[in-house]
Specification:
The protein is an alpha/beta fold and 457 residues long. It has a domain of 99 residues. Helices cover 32% and strands 18% of the residues. It has 14 helices and 15 strands. The strands form 3 sheets. The protein has an 11-stranded mixed beta sheet. Strands 1-2 form a two-stranded antiparallel sheet. A two-stranded antiparallel sheet has the order 3-4. Helix 11 links the parallel strand 10 and strand 11. Helix 11 crosses helix 13. The longest helix has 18 residues. The protein is globular and about 55 Å long. It binds pyridoxal-5'-phosphate (PLP). Pyridoxal-5'-phosphate binds next to strand 5, strand 6 and strand 14. InterPro entries: Aldolase_TIM, Lys_aminomutase/Glu_NH3_mut, rSAM, rSAM_sf. Belongs to the radical SAM superfamily. KamA family. This is KamA family radical SAM protein. Keywords: 4Fe-4S, Iron, Iron-sulfur, Metal-binding, Pyridoxal phosphate, S-adenosyl-L-methionine. Its cofactor is pyridoxal 5'-phosphate; [4Fe-4S] cluster.
Length: 457
């Protein structure tokens, strides 16, 4: 049953995974020639925000003749503007005078706590309960989809500077959602027949060994989990470590697992995170894409719209058309979330919509499958459908792509036009309404969930 995927690894040389974290920042050869001021900025910012980059990214994805403008450099290396000036100055001062750890650490922790480390109700509202006990390592926000955070997959091959999960990479244990309990996962899913989708996330589930991934996924082929049709793997590995699917020692085991799952009638959706077309230009990345698709898995793509990285329609158009040509399906364009270095990356909602529209206008139909720009906010995923005028009032037209209450989904609603707004909480109801249509309902849900969690803990 387990047909082998064509495996001609000889064509690609295996590569040792070599990674640099903030402690080895100064050892990275490629940055030795950059101006000292720029390197100092990086040192300061990497005290606060997580930094991890591997040699493949440094050698193959970054154009070192275009610093600091290079999009992959911006995507992985700390930049001064990622901290607000007052935060930057405070940490920089301590670094300059070589302050001891006991002085530095509390300052860094305070700065981090001021960066909204856990947005969108991740800590409590999404928490599932099994036998009346909260299940760490899982989130269940939308009826049909459960998020699972396998404990072996809570880092990434490299870190994105804009990552909304940044807080879990800087050692704050209370922010780790990890679970090592395949059994709890399977029991929860068996009890929840409304769940059709399991989304493995992290970190990045593809940093896991194949045998660990198998532990979580093999059990899904049992009869009592027939209702779990779709297995999504949220991953940036095609960008940061495509060798995972080509020359890594267990590359073939991963592809075999995908094949077994698809042969068993599961839909394996590899949710690839790409921010820029440049990430897909290397032969090794293209080979990895080819192999994943040959295993029977589908690849869908998603990315936030980011100032300094991809805030223009031409790059999006080239990214989506490249993806379609390589057999991948564009799925989401996100709005940068309200956490971490968001002030550096955010783009006004008005501009985000214009970029979406200009992109759609210049790509063929097959590349117009991505929804967005979408905000993954507390009540749900809210999409900006456009700006218009109703009886002389300028408004945003919005709708839920996903809602904590399925009844909210796909109902158009309106917010007052605001040229500078960058997130849902900046918006106000339009047309004389005092609250958005979902708000009373959402308040009631929050109270109910808090009572449940309070009872359980
Ligand atoms: C985006 C998201 C999902 C998946 O939503 P789809 O509309 O099915 O893609 C599930 N859970 C959470 C918490 C999400 O943010």
């Amino acid at each position: 049953m387990t047909q082998r995927v064509n495996f001609d690894a000889e064509a690609f040389e295996a590569r040792q995974f070599k990674v640099y974290t903030h402690r080895q920042l100064d050892k990275i050869e490629a940055i030795q020639n950059l101006p000292e001021a720029l390197r100092f900025d990086m040192r300061v910012v990497s005290q606060v925000l997580p930094f991890r980059v591997n040699e493949y990214v440094i050698d193959e994805l970054i154009d070192w003749s275009n610093i600091p403008g290079d999009p992959v450099f911006q995507l992985t290396f700390p930049q001064r503007g990622m901290l607000k000036p007052e935060h930057f100055d405070e940490v920089a001062e301590l670094i300059r005078r070589d302050a001891p750890t006991e002085v530095l650490k509390p300052v860094i922790e305070r700065v981090r706590s001021e960066l909204n480390p856990h947005p969108a109700g991740q800590m409590d509202l999404n928490l599932p309960l099994l036998d009346g006990e909260p299940l760490r390592g899982m989130q269940h926000k939308y009826r049909e989809t459960v998020l699972f955070f396998p404990s072996q997959g809570q880092v990434c091959h490299s870190y994105c500077t804009f990552c909304f999960r940044w807080a879990q990479f800087v050692g704050d244990k209370t922010l780790k959602f990890a679970s090592s309990e395949a059994d709890a996962l399977h029991r929860y899913l068996a009890e929840h027949t409304e769940v059709t989708d399991l989304l493995m996330t992290g970190g990045d589930p593809m940093v896991m060994k194949a045998k660990h991934l198998r532990l979580y996924l093999e059990g899904l082929m049992r009869r009592e989990l027939d209702h779990v049709q779709d297995i999504r793997l949220g991953s940036k590995s095609l960008t940061f470590w495509p060798y995972r699917f080509v020359t890594d020692p267990d590359a073939e085991d991963i592809l075999t697992l995908f094949r077994e799952l698809t042969d068993a009638g599961k839909h394996v959706a590899f949710m690839a995170h790409f921010n820029h077309w440049r990430e897909m230009e290397t032969p090794i990345c293209r080979e990895a894409i080819r192999r994943i698709r040959a295993s029977g898995a589908e690849i869908r793509t998603q990315a936030p719209l980011l100032n300094h990285i991809n805030a223009n329609a031409d790059d999006w158009a080239r990214m989506w058309t490249t993806q379609v040509r390589l057999g991948m399906i564009p799925y989401y364009m996100f709005v940068e979330r309200d956490t971490g270095a968001r002030h550096y990356f955010e783009v006004p909602l008005v501009r985000a919509f214009e970029i979406y529209r200009e992109t759609m206008q210049q790509v063929p139909g097959l590349a117009r499958t991505a929804r967005g720009p979408s905000m993954s906010a507390d009540p749900g995923k809210v999409e900006i459908q456009g700006m218009t005028e109703i009886h002389g009032e300028k408004v945003f037209v919005l709708r839920f792509i996903q809602g904590r209450n399925a009844d909210w989904v796909q109902r158009p609603f309106f917010a007052k036009y605001d040229a500078t707004a960058t997130w849902l909480n900046h918006l106000e109801p339009a047309l004389g309404e005092s609250r958005f249509f979902y708000e009373n309902d959402f308040d009631a849900m929050k109270l109910q969930k808090q009572a449940l969690i309070h009872k359980a803990t």
